[in-house]
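Q: I'm a student working through a structural biology exercise. My instructor gave each of us a protein and asked us to get a predicted structure, then write a short paragraph describing it. Mine is Short-chain dehydrogenase. I'm not confident about reading structure output yet, so if you can add a plain explanation after the tokens, that would really help. Here is the sequence I was given:
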Amino acid sequence: MQAIFITGGGSGIGRATAQLFASRGWRVGLADINEAGMVETARLIGDAPVSTHWLDVRDRGGWDEALAEFASVSGGRIDVVFNNAGVGVGGDFASTTTDELQRCVDINLMGVVWGAHAGHRYLKESRGCLVNTASAAGIYGTSGVAIYSATKFAVRGLSEALDGEWTNQGIRVRALLPSFIDTAILDGTPVGSNHSMRDRVRGAGLEFTPVETAAQTVWDAVHGDGLHYLVGKTARRMWFGARFLRGSMRKMARAGSK
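A: Happy to help. First, here is the predicted structure for Short-chain dehydrogenase. I'll explain a few features afterward.
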């Protein structure tokens, strides 16, 4: 039985991905700091083989422990490591506290770095797949979410680099680039604002993409041969604009900061 290890498995894209892979015959390992969320995900999965593993992705040693725990119940096999855990930090960059900036870097970037580093030996053995959640904010710098955007650019760059470095080892690497997925992360309020990210997206007339669409894209990424997997209309528009309309993208970024 193939096995997938999912960080951020207690909610959002992680939960939807766990449900999808479990429904298609995979063993699922859920990792999160949210114990109650993991229990709920496991309940939703039902009778399919699933295990929960408490993990703070900032802890490199914790990664070794969690992956070893999962391997102990999966027969030593891990076919996919889905580096999905992340946090949103929005608002005026200069007004964001140093603690918030550091937390975003440590979770969104270093959590992915440690997951790739710890997961390498399992994926090399299984000739498996590393999937990293980047973002449409990693396509072109997005005003109002500067540090978040920076971490997602870094995740995208790491994915591209490892795609080249690991291909001869039989490991496939994929970068997921979602735009506005309908999850709780959009309910956060940016620094210096009275409106949630969800309100801002709605006010800009942009779309919310169902979380199930993101989960299906993870499935497609694991079974496809591409590197970048876009999720949502906004992500696709940004990808096109960043390639062919960089001047327009710059104007949009400046307009968004007003």
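A: Here are two points you could use in your paragraph. Residues 64 and 95 are 36 Å apart (CA to CA). The beta strands are 3-7, 27-32, 50-54, 80-83, 129-133, 172-178, 228-231. It's a good idea to check both against the output above yourself.
Q: Great, thank you!
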